[in-house]
Amino acid sequence: MTDPRVDTLCREIAGDLGVPVAADEPLARWTTMGVGGPARWAFFPPDTERLLATWRALREGPLPVRVLAGGSNVIVADEGIDAAVIVLGRAGGTIRREGNELVADATVPFPALVRRAAEEGLAGLAFAEGIPGRLGGAVRMNAGTGAGELADVLAEVEVADAAGRVRRHRPGPGDFGYRESFVAREGLLVLRARLALVPADPAEIRAEMEERRARRRATQPRGRSAGCIFRNLPGQPVGAIVDRLGLKGTRIGDAAISTEHGNFIVNLGHARAADVLALVDLVREKVARETGLEPHLEVEIWRDPR
Ligand SMILES: Cc1cc2nc3c(=O)[nH]c(=O)nc-3n(C[C@H](O)[C@H](O)[C@H](O)COP(=O)(O)OP(=O)(O)OC[C@H]3O[C@@H](n4cnc5c(N)ncnc54)[C@H](O)[C@@H]3O)c2cc1C
Fold it and tell me: pTM of this prediction?
């Protein structure tokens, strides 16, 4: 879409709301994988109030709207995207305690929330030690590990729909699945979440977190990545299949299948999205041939429809 009126409109929205904006913003800067091209427009709301206002204003406009929070589960194509992207990498947020619950803005870094729960002596989030990103991304992805998932402790989620209407939702059966949620299905924006936790000895929580941190250090790469590329197949971790197929260490350009974890692709320095995506295709094809099952992506690939 090249209509200059769209650009004027984006500038006006940003000016009216007092939200910093940038044209042709390189999204590689805002993702943990560190690849990919620009967004036509990037908006940087500093807080939840302006996040909602930006969402409402952009939703009425002609460009597709996307939200990029911690950027730890997204791979952006080299061509970039013709969209208005709400980037939350600079946004602030608050966490408050109410009884045994923590109420936090979606913009809060998820690791900070996990730490805060431990400091408060509230158990239930230690499973998430080491998961990067922001709370809103974690809700949408139902972030989790073998030891638990966010849905286990979510008491309430405050969301805005595509028309900007805000509602509080108490999750029920069917709202969350393995790395998926009603938030994704319904195209909602997460504003806040309330987590129901259980009082416990802070030292015990910290010990569990330390154990999980050590396990992660021993099994996952430290370099730039987007975490696990594929959802695991029923009863079969994709990383183990990749290992069995001898694919660990396979390299295309500056992207490589991690030597530590077969379901991670790492950016060795100057990878292009095309390199990463070529490896994604290679793994998908080989795993499908080996198992007869098509592995589904856990990461999101952002590119314009062709
Ligand atoms: C080293 C590493 C380890 C990881 N380990 C794990 C793990 O153990 N378990 C796990 O589940 N994941 C893991 N991940 C993946 C990732 O960290 C999680 O999926 C995380 O919850 C994504 O959060 P984010 O803020 O980075 O989301 P982003 O990558 O920014 O976005 C992911 C999706 O959420 C949407 N989104 C973000 N914020 C909002 C919002 N406020 N409202 C609505 N939609 C929103 C985005 O539009 C996008 O669709 C790992 C990633 C890395 C890099």
Answer: 0.97
